[in-house]
User: Fold this.
Amino acid sequence: MLGDVPDDKLVARALAGSNSAWDKLIRRYERRVYNYALRMVGNPDDALDMMQEVFMGVHRNLPGYRGDGVFAAWLFRIAAFRCTDFLRRRRFHSTFDEQTSERISPDQPDQDVMATHANEQISAALLQLPVEQRHVVELKFFQQFTFDDISRQLGISPNTAKTRLYAALKKLKQHEELRDAM
Amino acid sequence: MRCEEARSSLFDFADGMLSAAQRDQLTEHLDSCPDCARDYEAISDLALQASVWHELPAPRWQPPRVGSPLNLAAFQQWFPSLASAAALILVIGMYLQMPEFQVRSTATVAPQSVSDVTAAPAPGMMNTSLDTALNNNRQERQQELQALVALMRAEMDRRSEETEESLRYVIAHQIQGQREIDDLYRYIRKVSSMPATSGSADQPVIGRAPADRMSVNRVSADKVPVEHKPVDVREQMQ
Assistant:
């Protein structure tokens, strides 16, 4: 029944007290936010923590959402803020290889193992970037936002976003794991 | 096309957002510029890499409920305004109940003396209990003021008495001193008019007389040594 309901209507219903609308909103975005968090922080446990923090932030700020833009862009602005705060608190170090290897169990199908391996390589490459460059790469290439959206989400100008993106590309070109994943 | 212009269009080119003419111009530039071509290659590689990412399902977790947390969020939004309004109402209420405000308001309605204002407050401004409290407060203040005035008067009287006594003492000593000076003056004139005589016993100790005479008031004659017994000038004169 709520399958094709626009985000704004789900938000309005959630604010009116509808748990089903709120659940629908979460289920619609939790996978996307979780994978975003996984690429940003590099391991599943931290990604889960960060996803929960993002939705708690959405939950807390939902009454202030005015519906004057795309809900996803508003959500990822909160996500970017939460992610920056999360990484600052955690002082994340490159523990990706240790923790993600726990997910790959011997009885997994070969296709899943390959996919997981590709994800690990991509995450390892992204983790070589400074956080501000990682944000721009994530929002541009994985979330498909425009530079105007990215500038609003990160509080920078579109030209600054492009400059950071070129700097990230230059660094990624030198990363051998990314080339291997291609 | 210059490199700067080409670089600003590479992302739109990769997204297929350029017009046919722009696309042709950029393609021509990329064929002739290895640097821009490498940038475009990097953009394409990263876009391809992003598409390779295998989306993982989110782990099971317990999302927040709409019930209390959202209500809490709404509460957090309107609570500051409500608290400010309540504080403002409280301050206004306290101000209206202050005695000064009551007197001022009543005096504005009917400019009379303070006692009249206290005796006949304007109707509708104060209830009976407030009237009683106001009158009690005023009586207490009047009593305090009267006590303060009495204390000030007593202090002024005490100081006046002290001043009067001091003046009396000073005048008395001035008179006495003047008499002594006059006596001494007469004695000197008498001595200077008399022929010189021997016998120091009859001569007064002029130099010591004033100081010794002053000490008579404080020291009894019995305690004064014989050789230092003061000599009264007036006795000498007589």
